[in-house]
Design goal:
mainly alpha, Hypothetical protein af1432, 10 helices, globular
Length: 188
């Protein structure tokens, strides 16, 4: 079952998602929704409800993992499964690192959520280069191997971006300017 946005917001409350993480998730969902609508407009099949719900809940496990060494993506996937949201568990599990080497595809909901998350730093839409710099500074721990692993992971983001935007009239750097102030899923 795919949760409705109201279900996603209820889970955010139930799992005491911090406001800053919730704000980040809302912007990631807006980015994912905008991209998905654009791709659907070009005839590419995507399940919009799946993408938006996956984006809203991609960090559902993050608050519980702060200040621990637990993997928030895997905890988030487990939370989704516990609530019967098996369809989005895989999107949540793979929003940090995609676990396969499939080529970039504009119809892959996992790749859309993964990419949208990489474009949002806190609650601001940024370029992949800006987000990469932040992730290296925040999580690289001045460890050359760790920083290289982060760069390798981000190389997939750049490839996905090229494929997505080859189908859209916008350029990646124009994303923030085209995004509506609210998504269709916002609380009113």
């Amino acid at each position: 079952m795919i949760p409705r946005p109201a279900d996603c917001f209820a889970l955010m409350s139930q799992y005491e998602m911090l406001d800053n993480i919730r704000d980040h998730s809302l912007v990631v969902a807006r980015v994912a929704e905008f991209i998905s609508l654009g791709l659907k407009g070009k005839g590419i099949h995507l399940d919009l409800d799946l993408v938006v719900s996956g984006a809203l809940l991609h960090d559902i496990g993050k608050t519980a993992c702060l200040h621990t060494d637990r993997n928030h993506a895997l905890l988030g996937a487990d939370i989704c499964r516990r609530h019967g949201f098996e369809e989005i568990a895989d999107l949540v599990a793979q929003h940090v690192i995609l676990d396969d080497d499939l080529p970039p595809r504009p119809d892959d909901a996992r790749q859309i959520v993964y990419y949208a998350d990489k474009r949002v730093n806190h609650d601001q839409i940024v370029s992949l280069a800006e987000r990469l710099a932040y992730i290296i500074e925040r999580y690289g721990q001045n460890d050359a191997m760790r920083c290289q692993a982060i760069r390798d992971n981000f190389s997939r983001s750049f490839a996905i971006e090229r494929v997505i935007f080859s189908h859209l009239p916008q350029e990646p750097e124009d994303l923030a300017g085209f995004l509506p102030e609210q998504g269709n899923f916002e609380f009113k």
